[in-house]
Amino acid sequence: MGVALVVIVLAGAAAWLLVGGSSPKPDDTAGRFLAAWSRGDDRGAGAVTDRAAAATRDLEANRRGLDGAKVRATLGDVTEDGGEARAALRLTWQVPGIGPFAYDSAMRLRRADDEWRVVWSPKVVHPRLGAHLRLGTTREPAARGDIVDRDGRGLVTNRAVYRVGLQRDKVKDIAASSAALAGVVDVDRAALARAVRGAGPQQFIEAVTLRKGDYAPLKDAIDQVPGALVVEGEAPLAESRGFGRALLGTVGPVTAEQLDKLGGARAPGDAVGQSGLAARYEERLGGTAETRIVIRRDGVPEATLLRKAGRRGRPLRTTLSVGVQRAAEEALGGRDDEAALVAVQPSTGDVLAVANRPADSSYDRALEGRYPPGSTFKVVTTAALLAAGLRTDEIVDCPRTITVGGRSFKNFEGGAAGAVPFSQDFAQSCNTAFIALTRRLPATTLGDTARSFGLGEPLKLGMPAAEAQVPPGKDLVARAAAMIGQNETLSSPLAMAGVAATVAAGRWHAPRLLAGDREHAIAPLDPGIRDTLRELTRAVVTEGTGTALADVPGDVHGKSGTAEYGGGDPPPTHAWFIAYRDDVALAVLVESGRSGGSVAAPIAARFFAACDAEDACG
Prior knowledge:
Largest sheet: 5 strands, mixed
Number of domains: 3
Distance between the termini: 121 Å
CATH superfamily of the largest domain: DD-peptidase/beta-lactamase superfamily
Number of helices: 22
Number of strands: 23
Strand content: 25-35%
Shape: elongated
CATH topology of the largest domain: Beta-lactamase
Radius of gyration: 37 Å
CATH class of the largest domain: Alpha Beta
Low-confidence stretches: 1-21
Structural class: alpha+beta
């Protein structure tokens, strides 16, 4: 019987050896654990341990704490001592927004019932972990850079704000508190109530963020709302809600679309530029956050394992002037129609102010809008006529209407002065007189002359800016319309401010918006033509369609414009006025504003008065 048993055992052993088996090794178990962990199968890795549920829970919690990081776990030396073994590990996490996080670890294994198991401990994940400890990350957004003016004064900078909302655990009647607060701060009460119902027991639900000046008159009413809470803070803001809004832009919570576009540079909850300069230069202004890998005890950071330094946002220095911008905003006032005012410095091309209405719109019509310039274009037309030999004392008839190629043209502002010198035609903006001179200019002359005033020159402003177009007229009617800034001639308020600036400086300087950009100018105007244009634009203010500026101190020059657009009989018109005084030039546009002299010119006058009050136009 004993012999038979020995034979059976040996036969079994021989069979096991024949199929290539060997005694189980701790290396194999360690390898299975690390392979599963590295491919993201935390449950599979936990199954190789002696406490599967606890191991799976710890592995998942630490991966989640590292923002879903991927780990590459490699096996080092394995030492075996009877039924115990110890394995050295090298762990490298790829942590979103931080990058690689590598360190050494170790794990114990134990053999039981001819099988090796990983002896589970949180220290496998990191040597410093233990009960109630987990890996995690923290993120501290960078201090945002200011948008500053030419003198370093803040255009968009941190200013006091008040975050007004409801504290969930203080609200007894959700519907009543939501309705009461919505009535004070003008928000959707139903949406606020839904947010409160879905909030955690001690959560603060923000309803609105108010500037200091907006909060002060509402404070007492807010204090009376049951459960209301006000949190003081700071936010990057301009000095008022509408101050240069379309150009400077706004800053707000990052959207999912922006997160994708910014490629990991921002995280949920960050504040980023939503429009204007704030959005275009987000990388510069926003800087980069400081990030850390930490050990958390019951959710609270206790120790830092890795710190990745951030970078403060850098200020963006512009060519704008706080004082000139204030004057532009005051000149446009509280109007809510579509209007724009842009001011530039003729000697450099520096953009000094950009104001738009409606004030809460993000559309920058001052830079991006393209409109027929109407009679403001007569500055260009006159330069071309002077170069062709026209004298300002030449008599050019100004009838009420004139017909060219079967189309009838009329005057908007100048009436019918009759047979008067061209200088008077210019001052009174007589359309029919200019149209009568159409045949004196070849088809391409207006476009060529316009380039001397920057119209058609490419713009490199660092922000979207419409380029002007002055195409040659296809026929005599089109050429006649082009003489008075109609036909297919289009320009932005910025470009037309450049026309006034060219007369002031004697040459066109490319507009600059960022202080570090290179200055660029083109060939100067002929001195004789320059001086004549200065005389003519001065007469517009003293005796023509720009007398709304007659009382403005100093040597003010200007040109009005009334530009048809669209259909209708008569068609609607935009109101324009361009002007300069000393080293400040501007353009005013009021969409559907009827007459330039009666609507746009008074805005220009208010601008100079406000600029003087700010002591910003000297």
